[in-house]
Design a protein that fits this description.
alpha+beta; Structural Genomics Hypothetical 15.5 Kd Protein In mrcA-pckA Intergenic Region, Chain A; Alpha-Beta Plaits; 3 domains; 9-stranded mixed beta sheet; 4-stranded antiparallel beta sheet; 24% helix; elongated; binds uracil
Amino acid sequence: MAKERLQKVMAEAGIASRRQSEKIIAAGRVEVNGQVVREQGVKVSSQDEIKVDGVPIEKEQLEYYLLDKPREVISSAHDEKGRRTVVDILKDGGVSQRVYPVGRLDYDTTGALLMTNDGALANKLMHPRFEVDKTYVAKLKGIITNEEMKKLRQGVMIDGRLTHEAHPRLEETDHEKKTCIVRITIHEGHYHQVKRMFAAVGHPVTKLHRERYAFLNLHGLMPGQFRKLRTAEVEALRKL
Ligand code: URA
């Protein structure tokens, strides 16, 4: 069960700011499972009962969505250039909770994007050491060779760092247009990871789509559409 700091949970429940919640905790006004907690840094899960001045707090309902991100949409909550964001898509679709994307897809990348207000789960899934498999379909300039595929499998240098094991598969080649399509599964999630991996073997990406995030695929969704995750899917993400 994911745990979060008590003052953060209080802030999310609308009790007070995090700083102010720390003061409320220090004043002995908060109980967790019937015990007064005065020290800072205590972590709680959704299973814990939290009371402030004897009144149970109403925790923000945790929600989880899978979006098929369209092109030309920003994967963040705000954009200083006023471009449409993934958060706008969910809001316009009637989601009233403040849900945020778990990681990012580039402005021109399409596909599977998890969105939630469960900060603890999001942080866990986004941790670079955390190995969530993600499958991408990339259209490349030029025809990739076996040798280049092998390099991708074994690791290529990006920013002085060797990429982890990847699983690429050549799906299509167009000898006339000199392009090809490669499906690749990776578990890292560094900035522009896929584009930089292909660029490192000499094949710029001209189109990128994420068709799978962990076990979640986009079946039944069209670009710009989203769906709520089922309880079993949320549990499975927690157990990953
Ligand atoms: N890798 C990229 O280069 N871009 C994305 O949007 C996702 C992964």
